[in-house]
Amino acid sequence: MTLRVKEVADLVGISVRTLHHYDEIGLLTPDQTSESGYRLYSDENLDTLQQILIFRELGFPLKKIKEIVASPSFDRQEALILQRKILIEKRSKFDKMIASVDKMIQHLKGEIHMTNKEKFEGFDFSSNLYEQEARERWGDQAVDDSNEIIGKMSTDDQNKRMEKMEAIYTKMAAIRHLPPDGVEAQDAAHEWYVWLNQIGSYSLEAYKGLGQMYVDDKRFTKNIDQFGEGLAAFLKAAMAVYADRNKTK
């Protein structure tokens, strides 16, 4: 089933001009055009449009959205799962802020008294964990490059890569009681940096940021610490030392 541009605009609640603009910039080009020149949108086009509008709601610029959805490594289901997490966290923040606003209205009416601290309960302006993950996932060219390289590998090569990664983790787990700025730790940090750059292009700053994510995101911590309790924190420290030391070289 196909829909004309006006039908899509009415269905979605956006303007025809917006759809024309998406087509003009190559963000969303309809699969078909009728003999009379009408744009005809397929079900797959509508699926892509849904993703575009969610990304827009999350603050992604159109240029970046185009790069994301056009990437060979783009996984629509993965994107939806992460988008859902971001939206749920945003909803939770808004619910708390609404509750504070309702209390403030009561306060102004003289029905209740609020302390200054209570007036700002629910006003959390720290970063959204999943939103940061999304921006790192789709905003860092190194990650996209890595996925593309891995996708071209044979299954055997991919398995060897995973075995090497696990070997590095195991090695670092065995020395995690040592100082992260020591020779053993820094040799392992170098080995990990080389491994990452064989499938991507990680700057020293990005490498340091990746280590920070190992402790900031509890999912990373849980997976890494399977090799040894406290390994994620040790990795973060060793990677930071490695990045800082090599910036001056």
From TrEMBL:
What keywords sit in the KW lines?
Activator, DNA-binding, Transcription, Transcription regulation
Tell me where in this chain the HTH merR-type domain is found: 2-71
Which PROSITE patterns has this protein been placed in? HTH_MERR_2
Does the keyword field hold Phosphoprotein?
Answer: no
Enumerate the transmembrane spans: none
Q: CDD domains, alphabetically?
A: HTH_TipAL-Mta
Superkingdom of this protein's organism: Bacteria
Q: What InterPro entries does the annotation carry?
A: DNA-bd_dom_put_sf, MerR-type_HTH_dom, MerR_fam, TipA-like_antibiotic-bd, TipAS_dom
Q: Where is the signal peptide?
A: none
What is this protein identified as? MerR family transcriptional regulator
Q: Which organism is it from?
A: Jeotgalibacillus marinus
